[in-house]
Design a protein that fits this description.
The structure holds two protein chains of two kinds.
Chain A (H helix, E strand, L loop, with lengths): L5 H28 L3 H4 L3 H11 L15 H5 L4 H10 L1 H9 L5 H21 L3 H4 L14 H13 L3 H4 L13 H4 L9
Chain B lengths: L9 H24 L58 H4 L4 H4 L49
The chains are: A mainly alpha, B mainly alpha.
Chain lengths: ~190, ~150
């Protein structure tokens, strides 16, 4: 009954299969564990600054009781994009160890840079994480305020993406950033 | 002339007793009629208090008319999405000189860019920075006190 006998091959395959299931299951469980809000705010950097601001916004508490937690916006849903983001997030662990933003003052000093990173990421993916829930196709413009409806139609016509206008909706805007300078459109109208 | 009555006379004692009894009767009846009321009304201690009225912020397309000259215009929309902090003023996203045209929002008045020394600034003057000191969103509640003011 050698390793290369029929029975031996079967045993190796079965062993490999079971090991694979265990490994994959473990890996996915661990990854999902890092995809919980409770994990995000286990660091005081997140809990004291951005989380507190978020609890005052509509993505935390609203009329219908649907809540978007940290990973809903900040971690992609699709597996491959999620893995890429998770690997990139190792940089965040490095800076956690360095204590780059370990006081509110340090955090505020870095806020513009951090926010800009996230805005760039969202711009690059056509606000993919927003669009997991929000979709132009399911928007009823009649139910919106006329001004919002106008702007949304403008956005569809010009292929704008959510984050171009909707910055600072779940967290405070950084100091030194003026949304009036940045929001798209209206160039031909302004003189 | 009135007949003076000595305080020890039987007539005087009788009068005092009558007044005393009358006062007692009034006290007993009135206390039965209006018992002590606390601020939570006449609810039993273990019962829920009255529901608080909801105050839903009103959205008025096209804005709310002024009631008198130089009235700070009232805010015709919800403002809970916009924050006014030391680091930024959310209202200025739409109402600033730069943004009002493309957002189709009323522009912050020119007076708001003038500081107390009369200099015109590029940013909203710090004495006008906190918009909701003068401008307030409105609810559709009935006025608490009736009034006949008609406005302009």
């Amino acid at each position: 009954m050698g390793l290369f006998s029929k029975e031996g091959t079967f045993k190796v395959l079965l062993f490999g299969f079971v090991l694979g299931v265990l490994f994959w299951g473990g890996f996915n469980t661990a990854m999902e564990a890092t995809n919980q809000e409770s994990f995000c705010i286990s660091c005081h950097e997140m809990e004291e600054n951005v989380y507190q601001e978020y609890t005052e916004t509509i993505h935390y508490s609203n009329r219908t009781g649907v809540r978007a937690t940290c990973p809903d916006c900040h971690v992609p849903k699709e597996w491959i994009h999620k893995i890429i983001r998770k690997i990139k997030a190792s940089n965040e662990l490095y800076h956690k160890m360095l204590g780059t933003i370990d006081t509110p003052e340090k955090f505020d000093a870095k806020r513009l840079q951090l926010a800009t990173n996230e805005w760039k990421r969202m711009l690059g993916t056509d606000s993919r994480e927003c669009r997991n829930c929000h979709d132009f196709d399911s928007m009823d413009f009649d139910k919106q305020e006329s001004r919002s409806a106008d702007r949304h139609e403008e956005a569809i016509d010009n292929d704008w993406t959510c984050i171009q206008c909707h910055k600072g909706i779940a967290h405070n805007l950084p100091e030194g950033y003026d949304p009036a300078d940045d929001s798209p459109g209206g160039e031909e109208e302004s003189e | 002339m009135f007949k003076t009555i000595k305080s020890t006379s039987p007539l005087f004692i009788k009068k005092r007793v009558t007044i005393f009894l009358l006062a007692m009767a009034v006290m007993i009846f009135s206390s039965a009629a209006m018992s002590v009321q606390s601020l939570r009304g006449d609810h039993a201690l273990d019962a829920d208090a009255n529901k608080v009225m909801k105050h839903k912020i009103d959205t008025v397309e096209g804005g709310i008319k002024r009631n008198f000259k130089l009235q700070p215009p009232m805010i015709p929309h919800t403002i809970d999405k916009y924050k006014i902090t030391l680091k930024g003023n959310g209202c200025m996203k739409c109402h600033s000189e730069k943004a009002y045209k493309k957002e189709k929002a009323p522009k912050v008045g020119d007076s708001h860019y003038v500081d107390r020394d009369g200099n015109t600034l590029k940013k909203v003057s710090s004495r006008r920075y906190f918009c909701n000191q003068c401008h307030a969103p409105q609810t559709k509640d009935a006025p608490l006190v009736e009034n006949v003011y008609e406005g302009i």
